[in-house]
Amino acid sequence: MSKTTVEIPRLFVSAVSITAALVAILAVGSAPASASPITLPPAGGAPDYQLGEAYPPNSQVTIVARDRTAMPPEGRYAICYVNAFQTQPGESGSWPDEVLLRDSDGSLVHDPDWPDEVLLDTRTPEQRETIRGVVSPWISDCADKGYNAVEFDNLDSYTRTGGLVTRDDAVALARDLTSTAHGVGLAAAQKNAAEYAPVLQGAGFDFAVAEECAAYDECASYTSVYGDHVVDVEYTDNLPRPFGQMCTAPDAVTSMVLRDRDLVAPSEPGYHFQLCP
User: Fold this and answer.
1) Residue 178: is its pLDDT beyond 60?
2) Residue 74, Cβ density class (10 Å: 0-12 exposed, 13-18 middle, ≥19 buried)
3) Per-residue model confidence (pLDDT) at position 36
4) pLDDT score for 34
5) Can you give the pLDDT at residue 35?
6) How far is 50 from 56, CA to CA, in rounded Å?
7) pLDDT value of residue 7
8) What is the residue extent of each domain of the chain?
9) Alpha carbons 30 and 22: distance in angstroms, whole number
10) In sequence order, what E strands does 118-254 have?
11) Alpha-carbon distance 233 to 218, whole Å?
12) What does pTM read for this prediction?
């Protein structure tokens, strides 16, 4: 059986082609701008952890972490600390009430180790969006100040909620926050939660800031995911073996610092700062 051929007028074909071309051009012109490129901390860089108080870093230091309220140091890779999964001390009143976690009795759930900090409720998309609305301006401010990266603290706070909040809830918020960080050109650091490093890398984290991974023999959990892009902070009140031995352990990270637990400035009693040899 023969096929019937329908001849389409050339003018019509031309019009269709022009329209398609215009649609393609407009689509390209309206595409969202790509996120700014991020920079990872220097592999093996010497770190200092200055959350207690900012001060001029040691000449050897190439990586500095400071609280988001402080300015970054010049000439160093700067990490901006943001408490994103629970409130800072004394600041629970500045958060929307619906994102403050409450137990079955309606009482606020506090961090048992930091009782003046209230845990945030990340269980619903609406609550996570509200939290993101509070934290996003902080992230943008870090970028505006000149920081290179942001670390989101207390990602593991769900482990202190008695089962009210799950890891999936925390990871969902982490994915939102890392996306926001990348959008303003900041790398995102996973803070602690060593056992979940593969899952968290999948949520958008680019490197890790670990506390006491050498003391607890868990540095390999980070380096197996992030390689040399792991910053480890050890503390003088928890040294199961001499710091020099921790530096030379087979699984030691290449960026490690020993600090006093309160992270005070050099002018304060108890200050301690020590790099690996």
Assistant:
1) yes
2) exposed
3) 66
4) 41
5) 55
6) 10
7) 40
8) 39-275
9) 12
10) 149-153, 187-191, 207-211, 230-235
11) 13
12) 0.86
Q: Which of 238, 242, 183, 233 is nearest to 208 (CA)?
A: 233
Give the pLDDT confidence of 20-31 residue by residue, as tens digits. Answer: 443 333 333 333
Cβ neighbours, 10 Å, residue 179: 14
Q: Are 253 and 234 in contact (CB under 8 A)?
A: no
Q: How far is C-alpha 36 from the chain's CA centre?
A: 16
Q: How is domain 39-275 classified at the architecture level of CATH?
A: Alpha-Beta Barrel (3.20)
- How much is the mean pLDDT over the chain? 89
Q: Which of 40, 3, 84, 23 has its CA nearest to residue 207?
A: 40
Give the residue from 222, 218, 214 showing the smallest Cα distance to 258: 214
Phi, psi of 50 (to 5 degrees): -115, 45
Nearest to 184 by CA among 230, 228, 135, 226: 135
Contacts of 40 (CB under 8 A, 6+ apart): 149, 187, 206, 207, 229
